[in-house]
Batch of 3 targets.
Target 1
Amino acid sequence: MNKYGCLLDQMIHKALKSNNTMNNKHIAVIYKSGCSTPVPIVFGENYLCCNKGCVHNLMNLSKHAEVDAIERLHKNPKMKKNIKLNMLVTRIKSDHTLGMSRPCLLCTRAIMNSKLRIKRIKYTDEEGKIISEDIKSLLNEDRIHIPKCYRLHLRMRGILNQDVSKQDEDLKKVKTILLER
C-alpha cells in the first residue's frame, strides 16, 4: 500500500458513512506537507446546499469538498499560520470506486486565495491513481475543469449559448471570464 493508502481508506470511510445524497461523493483532506505518512488536519466533502433562492442562483447549489475543507480549517483556532500544507481530493463513485477529482477552476482559485500555504494538490484520476500537481499548474488552460452548475448559471444569464453543440466555444468564453477575475 502506498503512503496515501491509509488516508484514502479514511476518505472512503467518511464518504460511505456520510448522509450525503449526491451520487458522486468528493472528499478533500488537508494535511501537513513533508511528513513521511500524511496526517490529516481537516476533511471536507461536497454537499447540496439548496435554499429557496437556489433556482435563481445556481452557483449556490452545492459546496465543493475543497472549499468545505478550507472553511473548516479557517474555523480551527489551533491551526498554525505558517505551516506547509497539501491537499488530497478524491471522488467516490456510486459503485464505491475512485474517479476523477481534479479540482475545478473555482476550487483552484479558492485554494490560491485562501491564504493557506497549500502548494501541492493531489487528486485521483479516472483510474483511481493519485496525481500530484503544483497549485499553479491546475490553471493550465487546456485542462481547466468548469463545474456544470457554473455553465448552467451562465446559460441562464444569457452569457453562454443555449445550444449545447457549441460547448467548446462556451468553455473558452467561461475560462476567459474566470481567469480575468
Target 2
Amino acid sequence: MTFLHICIVLAFFIVGLSTGAVAWRLIRGPSTADRAIATDMLGLLAICFAALVAAATGARAYLDIAFGIALIGFLAAVSFGGLLERASAPPPEPGE
C-alpha cells in the first residue's frame, strides 16, 4: 500500500465518523436551524465521499457528481435560509 492509499482509507474513516455525528445532530437537533445545518453538512460530506471515490478509483465522473451535489446543496441552503427568515419574522399587523 502506498502512502496515498493509506491517506484515502484514513479519510474514508474520518468522513464516515463525521457522517455518523451529523446524522445524530439531524435526528436529535433541538431546533430547525440545527437540522438545516446538519442537512447542509451531510451534503458537504457527500461531496467529500465522491471526491474520495474519485481519488481512489481514478474515475473523474465522481468529480462531476460532487459538483452536482454542491450545486444542489447551495440551493438547499438558500431555501432553508429563506424559510427560517420567514418563520422568524413577526406577522404583519392588520391594515398594513
Target 3
Amino acid sequence: MRDVSLWGALLGVEKTVIERIEFDEDADVVVAHVRATSRQRSRCGVCGRRCAGYDRGAGRRTWRALDLGTVRSVLEADAPRVTCREHGVVVAAVPWARHDAGHTYAFDETVAWLATQSSKSTVTQLMRIAWRTVGSIITRVWADVDAQHDRLAGLRRIGIDEISYKRGFKFLMVVLDHDTRRLVWAAPGRTSATVREFFNLLGEERCAQITHVSADGADFIDTIVAQTCPNAVRVADPFHVVKWATDALDEVRRGAWNDARALARKEPRRGRGRPRSDALPRPGSERAKALKGARYSLWKNPANLTDNQQVKLAWIAATDPELYRAYLLKEGLRVIFALPYTAAVEALNRWISWARRCRIPAFVKLQKSIVKHKPRILAAIEHGLSNGLIESTNTKIRLITRLAFGFRSPEALIALALLSLGGHRPVLPGRK
C-alpha cells in the first residue's frame, strides 16, 4: 500500500489529496496538509453545486480528525470562498467535513455513535471535546440522516404525548409510530401550535392515511386530530385513564390523612422519651402514620402487593370504608381494559353508574371525564392500542435528557433522541 493511501485510510478521508504529514512535537499533534481533488474543488459548501471562485477566504484552517493512537491529529487546508447563485458568498465545500464544521466526517460519526451508546464522561474524555461540542455534532449528524430518510413515510397508527425535559415547564411533544415502534418526530412545546406543526409537516395526503391516533385525552390534541385526520380513530390511552383514577384515589387518601392529622392535633401531647404504660392512646396520630405509609398499598396492582402491603390494605378495608371504596373504583376501572370489547362496554357503563352515585367527590368528578372520553376509551379496548409504547419511550428520553444536560438548545436533545430511538442509529466509520 502506498503511503498516501495508508494515510488516507488512517485519517478516514476520501476524495482528498494528502500533500505531506508533519508532527508538531510542541503541541503533540499530527498535522496532515491536504487539499480536495480537482473534481471536488470550487463547490458551494451548502448545496455542493460547482461555483465560481470569490477569494482565498481567511487563509488556511484546520479540522479535527480521529486520534492516531494516543496522539491527536488534524487536517490543514486552504479555505477559499466561492459565489453560489443560491447561497451567495460561502466557504467552499471540502470532501472530508461538513459545511461550517470543525471536525471530519469520521470524527462526527464516531462521536454520534458514542453518544448513543455510552455515558457523557466516556464521550468527552475519549474524544477530548466539551459536551456542548457533542451537542453540535449530534445536531449535524442527525440533519444528514434526516435528509436521507423520510421518517414520516408510511405512518398509519401514531401516538402523541408530551414529556418534561427541563425545569420551568419546558416540554417536548413526541410522536411515535405504533407499527415500527420508532420515534418519528419531536419538538419543544406543549401547545396546539406544536401539534399542528407536526400535521402541517405530515401534509394533507399523508394525514388522510392515518387510521389511529392515541393520546392522553388532552382536548387541544383531540381537536387538532379531528380537524387534520377526520378519518382516524381517536384512542384514549388506558395508562392515562387509569392514572386519572389513581390520582382521584390519592386525593381521597390525602383527605383521610388530613382528617387524621386534624384529630391528632387535638390529642394531648406526650413528653420526651418512651411513653408510660398507662399513657392515653393517640388514635389520630397512629392513623395518620398508617395512612401515610399506605400509598403503595393502594396504588399497586393486587397481584404485586407484598405481604405487608396486603395487611395494610386489609386494615384500610376494616377501618375506612370510603377510602376502600375509592380503591375498588380504581381497580374496577383498571380491570375493564383487560376485558373483551363486548364485556368492557357493559362493565364501563356499570362503572360509570357506580362512580356517579358513590358519594366520593373525586370519583364523581372523574366519571364525568370518563363519560366525555367514553368513545375513545372503548376504541382503545377494541383496537388494543395504548400509549404504553410512548411511556416506555418517554422513560428512555428522560435518561437521554439527563445525559443531554448542558446542551445549549432542545434541538440537540431532540437530535440525540431521534438518533437513539428513531431507527437510524449512527454507524462507526469503516464498518458500514
